[in-house]
Design brief:
217 residues; membrane; 8 helices; mainly alpha
Length: 217
Amino acid sequence: MHELAPPLTLEQGLRWLDLIGILAFAMSGALLGVRKRFDLFGVVVLGCVTAVGGGAIRDTLTGQTPPLFLRDETYLWMALLGAGLGFALGEGLARFERTLSVFDTVGLALFAASGAVGAINFGLGPLGVVFAGMLSGVGGGIVRDLIANEVPEVMYRRDQLYATAAAAGALVVVLLHPHVTSFQAQLGGALTIVALRWLSRRGWVSLPVRRVPGARD
């Protein structure tokens, strides 16, 4: 009689969600590379930078060197897999953009919240924690857009909160951390980010934009 496998712990579940987020980040970066007509190498580089860039920034800011994706190559292999899938599927990947968006949100939430917890453990102040948490979530996307010669989306996509949601989630971690466990604070921050992304995608939450006469929308 076969023994039952041990149940998946919450921490292991979060790690798998983290890896799925890496996969989604890599595929979204690869899709941009395909649309920019990059070759295979360029697409893979863009996908991997998108996937692990935020985590590398997080680990550097919080003194965890070398970055996690070099200490645990599972993350790098997942990034390579996502980038390869993005190149193989090409524009066909656009049919799954809604699903990718869900995983992208999960990745953003987990990266930003874990970055905030790491910054707290490193001894940063509240503003430093919020900044580090936000960069953990959006850093890879910013580097992706700069490499692809695009204005980073986080600077103008007011209709879909991204960097703002990451910063808000990191702030929730700061507020919760003195009163609950690190894991509970991280979970609260991540859920805040998911909720804000969901609300903004439905047009219920957005940021104001200063209108300048003659400026192009």
